[in-house]
Specification:
By secondary structure, this protein is α/β, with parallel strands linked by helices. The protein has 15 helices and 17 strands. One of its GO terms (biological process) is tRNA queuosine(34) biosynthetic process.
Length: 384
């Protein structure tokens, strides 16, 4: 990785919507740039599950995400570094972001103990007890070599009481300072701070302001899509996003459905990641502008059409719904692969259209009229 400046991650604001906080921009990293608003597919184990990197790139994806927690446990960050860092490991020459590992510690570990200094957790792989501190999280990410790395934070459940959120904010702020000190590659990797605070405006505001004073290259909003509900998420974003610096990228972590993304774009968020497109794809749930469909449904048995008319993805250009349905029932890997590929392309087409509408001044009309902007978590019909 070759340093490009003392500030490894830079944001260029190209155009701002006149009727909302939405903005068109571009983020530049040591391994390339990506256009915003941007959706980043998630590669939990160092791969976008079931998909070749060139297929992912063909969907329009410009930046992808890898998971620090899982890669730290297996194969280990030193192994990834020895194999040429994440860019070589994942065969992805473009921008990569890694999370801090904190969210998985809280959401996946069988046993964990959280103190002001660290989290001690039980590995889901072999049961070994592992200590993860802010310093350790950053050093792991330094070895993994992503372009954008995240500060170690505490992410409590959305319905956690104020006292728990207060403690999480205090830890998040202390850990953010420790992460900055521990960061060994500040001219090569951009470290983002994470705003916590649940649905409490006082805590969110305090956390955002103190992180801004620490002067990170970018800022994330964490602790949403963890059970607080759509309306609460919308309210939090409407309050906290405008507080974040206009000259730096803003990232909403782990969100979500198209409706959630569009809602966040309206407040000024630039970056998104979520497992929904690929996780749903592996379960035969395909996104279309008319709503999600379940390919396993018997009505698709002899359907000669594509997953979605008008989609230009490889799956829709090449396979019929009937064939893809057969692959799922036959236990063939190709079924989940094709629907995952389509879903990522569905998201990237939406993001590209959002960017185009911002560029040509039709953003508000686009959001009001395009049905994709209203797609939430409503489930498709069951098999019949």
């Amino acid at each position: 990785m070759t340093p490009v400046s003392d500030v490894p991650v830079r944001y260029q604001l190209i155009r701002k919507d006149t009727l909302s906080g939405a903005r068109l921009g571009r983020v530049t990293t040591p391994n390339g740039a990506f256009d915003t608003p941007a959706f980043m597919p998630v590669g939990t184990q160092g791969t976008i599950k079931g998909l070749l990197p060139d297929h992912v790139a063909a969907t329009g994806s410009q930046c992808i995400l890898a998971n620090t927690y899982h890669l730290m446990l297996r194969p280990g960050e030193k192994t990834v570094a020895a194999l040429g860092d994440l860019h070589r490991f994942m065969a992805w020459p473009g921008p990569i972001l890694t999370d801090s590992g904190g969210f998985q510690v809280f959401s996946l570990a069988d046993i964990n103990k959280v103190t002001d200094e660290m989290v001690v957790f039980k590995s889901h792989i072999d049961g070994a007890m592992v200590e993860l501190t802010p310093k350790r999280s950053i050093h792991v990410q330094n070895d993994l070599g992503a372009d954008i790395i995240m500060a170690f934070d505490e992410c409590p459940p959305g319905d956690a009481p104020w006292e728990v959120q207060r403690r999480a904010v205090d830890r998040t702020l202390r850990w953010a300072e420790k992460c900055k000190v521990a960061h060994q590659r500040p001219t090569e990797q951009g470290l983002f701070g994470i705003v916590q605070g649940g649905v409490n405006e006082d805590l969110r505001g305090e956390c955002a302001q103190k992180l801004i004073e620490m002067d990170f290259p970018g800022y994330a909003v964490g602790g949403l899509a963890v059970g607080e509900g759509f309306d609460a998420m919308k309210k939090v974003l409407g309050f906290v996003t405008p507080m974040l610096p206009e000259n730096k990228p803003r990232y909403l972590m782990g969100v979500g459905f198209p409706r959630d993304i569009v809602t966040a774009v309206l407040t000024g968020i630039d970056m998104f990641d979520c497992t929904i497109p690929t996780r749903n794809g592996r379960n035969a749930y395909a996104f279309t502008a008319a709503g999600a469909i379940r390919i396993r449904n018997s009505r698709f048995t002899k359907d000669t059409g594509p997953i979605e008319e008008g989609c230009d993805c490889y799956a829709c250009r090449t396979f019929t719904r009937g064939a893809i349905r057969h692959y799922f029932f036959a236990g063939e890997m190709l079924g989940p692969m094709l629907v995952s590929l389509h879903n990522i392309r569905f998201y990237q087409r939406l993001m590209a259209d959002l960017r185009q509408s911002l560029a040509d001044g039709t953003f508000t009309r686009f959001v009001e009229n395009d049905p994709r902007c209203r797609l939430g978590p409503a489930a498709p019909a069951e098999d019949v």
